[in-house]
Amino acid sequence: MTGKPGLPLAGLPLTGLKVVELGHYIAGPFATRLLADLGAEVIKVEPPDGDPIRGWGSRHNGHPVWFSIHGRNKLSVTLDLKSEQGRARMRGLVARADALVENFRPGFLERIGLGPAVLHGINPRLVIARVSGFGQDGPYRDKPAFGSIGEAMGGLRHLTATPGVTDHPPPRCGVSISDDLAGMYAALAVTAACWDIKGNPEAKGRIIDVDLVGAVFSLMEGMLPEYGLTGAVRQPAGSAILTAAPTNTYLCADGKWLCIGGNSDPIFKRLCDAIGNPAMGADPRFADNRGRCAHMAEIDAAIGRWTRTLPAAKAEAVLEAADIPCSRLYDMRDCAEDPHFRARQTVMEVQDPLIGPLLHPAAPFRFDGISPPDMVRWTGPALGAHNDQVFKDLLGETQDG
């Protein structure tokens, strides 16, 4: 890690951008984490008892491990937005900011006197990103939602069901994917809106509306136009996908799973040779992707018979030698210890002053001349760690409120 909290790393593209986070739990703070990793100054405004996410997951030395990532590169301040002093300080933060990201239920900011009209009265160029379950309008606007609801209503959870199994609920993917998606979209939209304003002194701030359901729904590929034209509703396909073959996950002799993508014409022929079945590669029924999709079960059965004869690592090595896209299903131990993850510093060790040596995931983008560890200027801070720095140094307060 490099740098002092509050000082950006030279060379990051969003250095100089000032962002206020009024987020809690995942979606809003995920958006600002991306912006902070890109160099923005992010001031995370927390209630006096902290973002509830500080209570999630494991703890070490009394400190939440997840928050080391969740709050990294951010300045933490505490404000009671229900008090006049808290709102006054919030107005001061807004006056110097380029953007604000919030993910409260629609109408909350208006109820406490900090709605967009008030905020734009303070700073007409402010970009305001509002992240919510269902959006700022529509009949479901006021309904509560968490990430699982975004998956359910956005269409994803329907697709994760096991075909033919009706007595078990479709599984979730194991992380709050709809929160993360909405956060990514919010970060992209904030960057775009700030770019639109940059260099134009007459430009006004925009209001960005991102919702969890819409973020998931945006990933549904061609399913909506297919339904609109024919009434077809795509059904769960398990570990396969109906539009390409073979691409599936196959059980190996040691009980582990191997994901194989053999869904281009030349790769399919190499795959058939590698598993000792060149006749399948020469079968005219399987000459193109359309034909292979029509005979998916037959092809998958043949590949599965081969994978069950070998341990997953051995089968992976055979296919890699033939230049076939494949991978064992990694758990976190596999990720943390993989030499490629380590060589690219996708997995990196940082020094967290609250926790000690800790593994962090790198930011999902690279910039020449800047190493992934250098992008972590500091880890998630203690609650209110930067109150004095922000209120006195940045806002110019001369005494405690």
Number of helices: 19
Largest sheet: 6 strands, parallel
Q: What is the alpha-carbon Rg in Å?
A: 25 Å
Q: Helicity, in percent?
A: 25-40%
Quote the CATH topology of the largest domain: Rossmann fold
Q: Into how many domains do the coordinates divide?
A: 2
Report the strand count: 13
| Mean pLDDT level | 95
Q: Looking at this structure, what is the CATH superfamily of the largest domain?
A: Crotonobetainyl-coa:carnitine coa-transferase, domain 1
N/C terminus separation = 33 Å
Question: What structural category arises from helix and sheet content?
Answer: alpha/beta
CATH architecture designation of the largest domain: 3-Layer(aba) Sandwich
Flag low-confidence runs: none
CATH class of the largest domain: Alpha Beta
Strand order of the largest sheet: 5-2-1-6-7-8
- Strand-residue proportion: 5-15%
Which descriptor suits the 3D outline? Answer: globular
GO molecular function: transferase activity
Protein name: CoA transferase
Keywords: Transferase
Pfam family, one: CoA_transf_3
Annotate the secondary structure layout.
Blueprint: E1 18-22, H1 27-37, E2 41-46, E3 59-60, E4 63-64, H2 65-70, E5 74-78, H3 84-95, E6 99-102, H4 108-111, H5 116-122, E7 127-132, H6 147-154, H7 156-159, H8 177-197, E8 207-211, H9 212-217, H10 223-230, E9 247-251, E10 257-261, H11 265-274, H12 278-282, H13 289-294, H14 296-307, H15 312-321, E11 326-328, H16 332-337, H17 339-343, E12 347-352, E13 356-361, H18 372-375, H19 387-394
Parallel strand pairs: 1-2, 1-6, 2-5, 6-7, 7-8
Antiparallel strand pairs: 3-4, 9-10, 10-11, 12-13
